[in-house]
């Protein structure tokens, strides 16, 4: 990554982080500092370590899923390389539209010579798998929980529909063609998208899709469980199923806002849903701040550590000079 772009992304990262913290601090100041601070300082170091460990479970499970998808595409990359690409891409989670995550495609091209057009389906399948898994967790959580946000039901349906379409080459090609006929611009872009959609046929493999769902399910459930433990340690008696629903729904809601990393939207949704469950702001604010720090921002921090390593190794690839 050119130095200018890297500093721009770091500035964006710092700016978004600062805005979120400032917003949470503002709400805390308006509702009283004492109880909020009491909840935060009562968390032990080992408890924070458990939260981070559960987040790592999520990243490793999804990294293993990424490895399976890469191998299914026929690319000769080992697990170490694929995990490095996957984790390094987290550094780009806060870029507009998460387009920066396509840096993974650049690393793969440098090391294998395979163009981005052929590897782009990896990103599509990765996102589709997350959508499907999160929708299923929401559905199961809503059935198991005594209460839950009614607005989650349409989200479940939409997420499952989108996940189904983007993993079916024929349907996706039809959707792309329809969109092109409506817009009528950028034909080269739509040609590339159509070619990428055709590549999805390689993922229409029962065992591959099953493993993608299982690994993604374990990963996202681990973060939902992390939120449950956090709420319990803060003194709440909210159930595991409800915590999973709130965490997953907030994550999806944040993504729907279009903000980088869902920043702002996810936090607002989480605080609102916790309030509906009778959780006071003095508890929901620190809970939201801590869980976002130990999930999204922890992932981004890992990405910033791995990114230069992935960049260094990719430049040693046999096809690095061609990119």
UniProtKB/TrEMBL annotation:
Its main location: membrane. The chain crosses the membrane at residues 12-31, 43-61, 128-146, 152-180, 200-221, 227-249, 261-283, 289-310. The keyword Manganese does not apply. Pfam families: LPG_synthase_TM. Keywords: Cell membrane, Membrane, Transmembrane, Transmembrane helix. It is found in: Cell membrane. This is TIGR00374 family protein. It comes from Falsihalocynthiibacter arcticus. The lineage of its organism: Bacteria, Pseudomonadati, Pseudomonadota, Alphaproteobacteria, Rhodobacterales.
